[in-house]
Amino acid sequence: MMRSLLLSASQNVWLRDHVPRFRFARRAVSRFMPGEELSAALAAAQTFQRKGLGTVFTRLGENVTEASEAAGVTGHYLEVLDRVKAMGLGTEVSVKLTQLGLDLSPELCFKHLVKIIERAGAKSVVWIDMEASNYVDVTLDLARRARATHPNVGVCVQSYLYRTEKDLATLIPRGLAIRLVKGAYKEPTNVAFPRKRNVDENYFKLTERLLSDEARAARVRVAIGTHDVKLIRRIQAFVTSQGIGKDSLEFQMLYGIQRQAQLQLVEEGWRSVVLVAYGSYWYPWYMRRLAERPANLWFVMKNLFAA
Ligand SMILES: Cc1cc2nc3c(=O)[nH]c(=O)nc-3n(C[C@H](O)[C@H](O)[C@H](O)COP(=O)(O)OP(=O)(O)OC[C@H]3O[C@@H](n4cnc5c(N)ncnc54)[C@H](O)[C@@H]3O)c2cc1C
User: Fold this and answer.
1) Of 84, 114, 166, 281, which one's alpha carbon is 20 to 30 angstroms from that of 69?
2) pLDDT-based confidence at 262, cuts 50/70/90?
3) Is 292 a pocket residue for ligand 1 (Cβ < 6 Å)?
């Protein structure tokens, strides 16, 4: 019930416009992001790189309503790619299509996406986040179109959706990079498993599919996007039992969550990547982080009373 309440609050326009003004809220969110500016994300990436961790950057924002804003976000990502290259960082980027203008026009959004993919260069994957279920068809469609002409395209899929198994059947043969996550949005029971147990079990089943002979023959890059350490251990045991090697997948986690586990993966010889979010438009994103673990509300309260 708390998850549902927090996810409803994540879509509330009044809260979105007002909460970020409160100092206690800004302090609470700092646990999940190094800062609002790109410079803070770059400094974090340098530190992570020294520790053997990879990074993916995402500038917070979604559902833009002005073409100029979508163009501005695209320009920002082009600058990010130039700066990470100049600094010798292996950082990749992850974009939300509704931030690149999807609600305005899929064609405009696609143009922006391709610009970013081309600037990233063949070896740096541009990851496409998956948003709410009404965007899945168009997101996968644009991802497949981009992959038809560029090798460095990745897309996120969600194990809470019943449809994802079928979607993988169309994505794997095309050799897209795939990030598997559980799913962060409020979805009705006719599209998503309501029980966490089923979401977790489907996650494992989909991972098996991503590590199948077919997927490896298509050279699918597999990113396991979860903080669920028990599930990670189960996946690692599967990899070992199949004798397919630690380089057959990578683990991706969000900045500030399971920090110790992120480092431990590196120590054990797995590829471990931190998704670093930054920017001032953090309210809906932060509410989804609270919904994932309502115990995080205690940090918000602590910061409220420390104010
Ligand atoms: C790299 C990455 C990219 C993502 N991209 C997308 C995307 O494009 N679309 C999308 O819908 N979702 C995305 N997500 C979010 C994802 O869908 C889940 O909502 C989120 O990862 C929580 O699920 P979990 O797999 O960590 O497992 P859970 O079972 O929810 O959590 C397992 C354990 O991890 C810890 N944990 C999890 N979340 C938190 C938190 N917020 N704060 C503190 N501890 C926590 C807790 O200890 C918890 O017990 C992404 C997640 C990651 C890691």
Assistant:
1) 84
2) very high
3) yes
What is the pLDDT at residue 31?
85
Across the chain, mean pLDDT equals 93
Exactly one of 129, 147, 209, 289 is catalytic; name it.
129
Is residue 49 within 8 A of residue 90, CB to CB? The reply is: yes
Calculate how far, in angstroms, residue 182's C-alpha sits from the geometric centre of ligand 1: 7
Is there an atom of ligand 1 within 6 Å of 143 CB?
no
- Atom 31, ligand 1: residue with shortest CA distance: 228
Residue 179 annotated among the catalytic residues of the structure: yes
